[in-house]
Amino acid sequence: MKIIIAGAGAVGTHLAKLLSDENHNITVIDENPEKTEALSQAGNYDLITFNNSPTSIMGLKEAGVAQTDLFIAVTPDETRNITCCMLAHNLGAKKTVARVDNAEYMQKQHQDFFKQMGISSLIYPEQLAAREICEGVKRSWVRQYWEVHNGALVMLGIKLRESAKILNIELRDLCPPDSPYHIVAIKRRSETLIPNGRTQLELGDIAYFMTTKKYVPYIREIVGKENYDDVKNVLIMGGGRTTVHVAHMKPDYMSMKVIEQSVERCNRLNELLDSDDIRIIQGDGRDTSLLIDEGIYDTQAFCALTPETETNVLACLAAKRMGVRKTVALCENMDYVDMAEKLDIGTIINKKTIAASHIYQMMLDADVNNMKCLNIANADVAEFVAAEGSPITEKPIRAIKLPEGVVLGGLVRGNVGMPISGNTQVQPGDSVVVFCRSQMLKKLDQYFRKPSGGLLEKLGLK
Questions:
Q1: For the segment 54-105, what is each residue's pLDDT rounded down to a tens digit?
Q2: SS3 (DSSP) at 386
Q3: Which H or E run contains 347?
Q4: CA angle 102–328–275, rounded 5-degree value
Q5: CA 169, 170, 172, 175 torsion-angle sign
Q6: Distances (CA, A) of 60 to 30, 48, 67, 316
Q7: pTM (2 decimals)?
């Protein structure tokens, strides 16, 4: 696939490195030679850099936009992103994606308008991050929470402490085929495991469960998290756009305090967040005495959402030491993600990987409804829809040669979620949740779309 990325900033660079590992034809356009040079020298990545303005018609033509399958505009300027996507579409690009910073553009009634302009999809990283943060703070005992197919299935990422009842038991005994849950991935220190029946859970693992909402309380019991308080009071450090979206998305039963240093920004937040259950406090969120005065000891969740990754990590660490069980750190610097996990920070949010998940989804040929990267587990999870005549529907799961490192977590049939076993026969129209190591999803879409040529024979189904 030929892909052009406009913008060699943080998001564009991360995408270029991610997609180059998939053996795609990647071209990165940026008019700043220092950025493209840094990308060229960053490692052994198979990509081409091109110094030119992404809004230059001549520059786009020279970069080969007429033969482009996917054009991704992720410069810091949303107007420029929209403009170059319109140009790329009219010059022959098949699909275009624009990063924007305006929540109004994401409203459903405007989607057809942007498609008529030649923009296939819009990405608003702050809004995506806010959604993940809200899901995280609702449950103090969960590291990651993800609903599939409107909640028919649920994924839970949980840190296993001494109180867990499921340690040191082989998974074939812990969750047999008739079990109401499956453990589909494990983060153990710096290693990601896609488990098999002989795998055992160990103290300190982050285990990823796939289940239905009915059994979430049961999962909470067996992992020993019943004594974790539900989150009602949230303290946020940093009053940027992500915080504003978190405030708008939070449930009604939750009260929130936002600590922001800038007086001007505090005034603006008071205008944007005029609500009885939201308080804006001018001050430094790193000030321990201020945190105590604002009730840190009675707070169930602390979110550090400033632009500074180091500040966020240290602030969450301090909040942990002051007794806050649920902490969320915005980590824009990927180098800090592993460190934050080793420090037991809690939920880690990286806008680059969240945006990459949504953009990567567009590259898959099968019908993929939902996808995300598990930041701290080096794994991907996606919801595939099985097409009529697709290989996955030909035989029971046990007879299909899935690639190593792939686990089917569950499926949704007629809006009803259910676990998958080796005897399961996937039917056309089923939504199947797939877990795999990062960057393997492209290899899986062939199982869920109608095959051509000798694909069935290749997959061992004929």
A1: 999 999 999 999 999 999 999 999 999 999 999 999 999 999 999 999 889 9
A2: coil
A3: strand 347-349
A4: 55
A5: positive
A6: 11, 14, 11, 44
A7: 0.79
